[in-house]
Structure formats: C-alpha cells, structure tokens
Amino acid sequence: MTASIHPDTHPGAVHLNITDLPRSIDFYVNLLGLHLNKQDSSTASLGAGGKDLVVLTENPAAKKYGRTTGLYHMAILFPDRRELARVIARLFADRYPNAPTDHINTKTTYLDDPDGNGIELYCESPEDGEFVIENGRFYARRADGSLSDGREPLDLDALFAHLRPDDELRAPAPPQTKIGHVHLHVANLNEAMRFYHDVLGFDNMGLMTAFRMGMVSAGGYHHHIGFNTWQGEGVPPPPPDTVGLQYYEILLPDRVELDEVVDRVRRAGLQLNALDEGYLLQDPAQNRILLTVGDAR
To answer: Is the pTM of this model over 0.70?
Structure first.
C-alpha cells in the first residue's frame, strides 16, 4: 500500500530563470501585485504576506526552448473572487494579454510573464460545481447537474461586480495569496504518476489519458501538481541555459513528515542532494523539486 503524503503538504515558491531582472520585477510587482521581499544584483524574491511565491534568477543569455519538459504554468491562488477581479482588471487596464477562463470550480486567467513563463491566476469557486475525471476523460459538473467541458469563457461582468466603487486596482496581493498548484510538462504520464503518487505519496486525482494529463494532490485538494505530455511523448529536458523552471518547492508541515518522504525517495533508489534548505531531487522528466519544511495552511 502506498504511503500518503501529509495532507497539509502544498507547493511553495517557484524558482525561475529569467533574462531581465528589472523588467520581471516590474511585471510581478506592478501587474500581479506581489511584494518585492528581497533583491540583489541577479536574484529577486517576491511574494505576499512575507512568504516567497516566486524567486527569479537573471541570466541575460538564457533562451526559451520548445518541445521540452519543464514548467507549463505556476498557479497563483487568490483568496476570493474580489481579489481575482482586482488583478484581472489591472491586467486589462494595462492591456496585458490574458485569457480569462471558467473551469466551473475555479475562476481563472492565463498569461505569460515577459520571458514566456506560463502563469495561472485563480480563485476557488466550488459552489459553482466540481471537476470530474471518468474513463480517462475530464469534464466539469455544474452545481445544477449540467455538464461543461470546464474551459468556458469567464463572465467578466459577473467577476468585476465583486469590486467596490472605491477599490484600488493597484492594491497589492493580500497575504492569503499563495501558490495553489504547479503544472509541468513531462515525458511520460505513467512515469510521472508513479513518482508523484507511489514514491512521494501524493493522492492520485486522476489520469486523463485522452487529454494527456494527470493530477495529484495532498489532503483531497483538486490538484497541487498537474503534469501533461502536450509537448510530446518522450521529450527531453531543456538545456541548462533555458528560460523557465529552475525548481519548485514542496512544503512539508514538519521535519518528521519531511524525513518520511525523503526515506521513501531513498528506498526507491532515487538520488537526493541534501542542502541547507532541504533536499533537491528530480522527477522522471528531470523537473527539479526542493523538498523542505514550510508553513501549514
């Protein structure tokens, strides 16, 4: 029987390689509303409520590669529709391209940062319905029982109705803002599921073989990690000079839970590098992960 990862486990900061640090800081602070927590000559940490959500490392020579594994998007979760409305309204006010989408049980928009790193901004809306995965296929069921493909245009008028007349669109992201999930390009769905479910212990929330995507989570959440083969089966990892994912964090609630996951990784014969912050390892697609201890939330 597969051991389950602790239900309070969740994604932490996403570490990205970018090409222009001032440009990226401007984007994440002035458009997304994150706070600049720390900066030096080549790195910056940004977040909300004192915690880091995105850590940027500048490499002016980095390039964007296609048809590789790596980051599809990182998903920033806002606490409610009003805060999501605020950031989407800001994007529209600045004419920044984005794609508002209604997944029924979440409301979201998709965009890229200045280097093409994918981002999802979303809030939960379980009162509207739920995700369903059956027979390798994905759809959404609305609260009234009717079905949806889960990829409908978002009703912006209804969303913006949550804003008040005196709301400041430039207000920063509230402290409850966090990384809701990380979605990865992988080379093989079954290998990814074996790693994240059988080794790390995340719950298998479903393999959508027809959609070429899988999802895992802790504690019953719809997904903390998504993975897909949309770049192609068997694609290689990106070269070292890539723009994109450096690594992302998986936060365990305490040292005991961290040690249990590390022990499972070692028993599976997988390599771990011990760092001051935690343990660095790779999934089968060579997406890098830092296992560490974080806040329970």
So the answer is: yes
Q: How confident is the model at residue 296 (pLDDT cuts 50, 70, 90)?
A: very low
Q: Which residue in the block uniquely carries the two structure tokens 């995340």?
A: 202
Strands 106-112, 118-124: pairing kind? antiparallel
The pLDDT-based confidence of 135 (bands split at 50, 70, 90) is confident
**d(Cα 240, Cα 87) in Å, to the nearest integer?**
33
Structure tokens at 22: 């001032």
What integer pLDDT is reported at residue 238 of this predicted model?
Answer: 96
Domain boundaries, the chain: 10-293
Taking domain 10-293, whether its CATH number is 3.90.1210.10 is answered by: no
- Nearest CA to 201 among 264, 119, 295? 264
SS (H, E, C) the chain: CCCCCCCCCEEEEEEEEECCHHHHHHHHHHHCCCEEEEECCCEEEEEECCEEEEEEEECCCCECCCCCCEEEEEEEECCCHHHHHHHHHHHHHCCCCCEEEECCCEEEEEEECCCCCEEEEEEECHHHEEEEEECCEEEEEECCCCEECCCEECCHHHHHCCCCCCCCCCCCCCCCCEEEEEEEECCCHHHHHHHHHHHCCCEEEEEECCCCEEEEECCCCCCCEEEECCCCCCCCCCCCCECEEEEEEEEECCHHHHHHHHHHHHHCCCCCEECCCCEEEECCCCCEEEEEECCCC
Question: Residue 289 pairs with which residues in a beta bridge?
Answer: 248, 281
How is residue 45 written in tokens? 């940490």
CB-based contacts of 5: which residues, under 8 Å, 6+ apart? 200, 201, 202, 203, 218, 252, 257, 261
